[in-house]
Amino acid sequence: MATIKKSPSYWKMVWRQYRRNHLATWGLVFIAFLIVMALGAPWIATNKPLWCNASGSYCLKAPIPYTPTQYNLDESLMPPNRHHWLGTDEQGRDVAARMVFGSRISLAVGVVAVGIYVAIGILLGALAGYYGGWVDQVVSRAIEIMICFPTFFLILTLLAFLGPSIYNIMIIIGLTSWTGIARLVRGEFLKLKNQDFVQAAIALGASDSRVIFRHMLPNALAPVLVSATFGVAAAILIESGLSFLGFGVPPHIPSWGSILSQSQEFMDIAWWLTLVPGAAIFITITVYNIVGEGLRDAIDPRLKV
Amino acid sequence: MSKLLTISDLYKSFPIRRSKLGEKRRFVHAVRGVSFDVAEGETVGIIGESGCGKTTLGRMIVRLLKPDSGRILYNDVDISQKPAKALHEFRRDVQIIFQDPFASLNPRMTVEQILGEPFIIHGIKRRKSRRELVAELLQLVNLPESSMLKYPHEFSGGQRQRIGIARAVALKPKLIVADEPLSALDVTIQAEIIALMQDIQKKFGMTILMITHDMKVVANMANRILVMYLGQIMEELPASQILTPRHPYTMALLEAVPVADPRRKKAMVPLAGDVPSAVTPPRGCPFHPRCPYKQARCETEDPKLRTLTPGNVVACHFAEEIAKR
Ligand code: SF4
What we know:
By secondary structure, chain A is an all-alpha fold. Chain A has one domain: MetI-like (MetI-like fold), CATH 1.10.3720. Helix content of chain A is 67%, strand content 1%. Chain A is built from eleven helices and two strands; from the N terminus they run ααββααααααααα. In chain A, strand 1 and strand 2 (59-60) form a beta hairpin. Chain A is globular and about 75 Å long. Chain B has 325 residues and is an alpha/beta fold. Chain B has a domain at 3-16 and 26-103 and 176-183 and 205-324: P-loop containing nucleotide triphosphate hydrolases (Rossmann fold). In chain B, the strands form two sheets. Chain B has an eight-stranded mixed beta sheet, with helices on both faces. Chain B has a four-stranded antiparallel beta sheet with strand order 2-1-4-5, covered by helices on one side. In chain B, a hairpin with a 2-residue loop joins strand 9 and strand 10. The interface between A and B is medium-sized, with 27 and 36 residues.
């Protein structure tokens, strides 16, 4: 059989469209940078040398030669300088090192929490939209009940019971925030169910799972991805808010929210303690939103061919 | 002749959303007591204006919809109420071709995936690879083999309809319901698709149920024609008699066909007015609000289908008198 050139898939075309948006493309680069920083934190911020030559005469230092918990009371509250690029906190800990490690919390919360609720939302939304009837009734009522609770306070309350920990935050955000995705998927599935190509698959005798996963879900995924991108931004903000209020990670573990929280007492004498985590949270959330919007433009129905 | 399909007294209605709270639930009565049968190898045309229930009827026959009541005997087995799981074998035998070739193909799948699916679903294992089977299908519908790795949007409407046909005939079904397969296409392409369907029918000897609003299409393809109006069958006639129908509605449909003859006068019986609402179908003969031959009796008494001449069944109280005029 002759070799045939494969045509670009839908996602390839989305990517082409996405790349035309320079701001969004740079946003994606920034997110990639954040991911590298989070994954590489133990090698980026450490007081141990990364590599030494055989004789030990020359050692390669880490870019930030401090660990996030290494304190030095002689160097407390130093403004940004040659050694501490982003200054130090009241215990003389390096803010840059703490920020790098803090990004791990943000990333983990964003990815895991959103992962959990996207999975729940897709499952419930798909079941409701595909089967309709009483399944839809149950899911729709559950969504309405969940929406009644103000999410942030629901999370606060649950955290008060379960105790503040990063895992609890992820799970609680995951278990409380699925309604948006569920409604989105349900709506898409209701539309898709009556599409001829879905009917064609049913007429061919395709099983429910084949119809749902091969035919409907791939056509409903794009808006979910957009929503999930915005969701990561929201989850990061919630985590920062919780940590700021002291409901988040324990104080010795750095997170952007907890660094910001600790800065309150020193706000008038140590501006960098507020500015650095505040700006990091602000920029990261803005970038996720820019990427989400770029994605939304790229999958615009006008592109749908 | 053995009957492949026997439909008796089929009903289907759809609830419409209540606009006001406490309002009585109302229904669109799409199909109201339809009966007919189809012999193996036949091509039966079902014709009617949009909203006459022909699409609903077609989707019930392939069991994409479940009838409210009535029976659909396929090879003497009633499939009208069977649960989806019990229909697997039936689905292999009975396929559907859709109207809109832009909506009937999954935009995220390549042609190879689309055409390979029937074989996967029905676990067809042959010596040939699935790719070879797909290549054969493409050849059957006159598309190049290189189409395989393309996505539906890269094809024209006519080409997409060929893909839709290839999918429907992949498992060599016994019965194909073609739901307006031509109405979304240009006239020249329509002729190609008709030729293709006839060609495939000759090769595989399948039975076709052709649903359409286009008189010319049924006249070209069908052996037998059923005329539907407001969910009921008004007339059944052999294709050879298409120019001499007995029912006023069929006459009106025929007159509405545009002809290429400029000398011919405008329609004698203009099909005036819209199809009445299927929510509250008129009492008596459903056609009476538009019928030029209407009499008092038509408004109260529902005309039953009567056989006038062999093969010609008409639901009109005054068919004989009207024909004499
Ligand atoms: S029954 Fe009466 S209204 Fe109906 S088609 Fe015949 S003449 Fe017309």
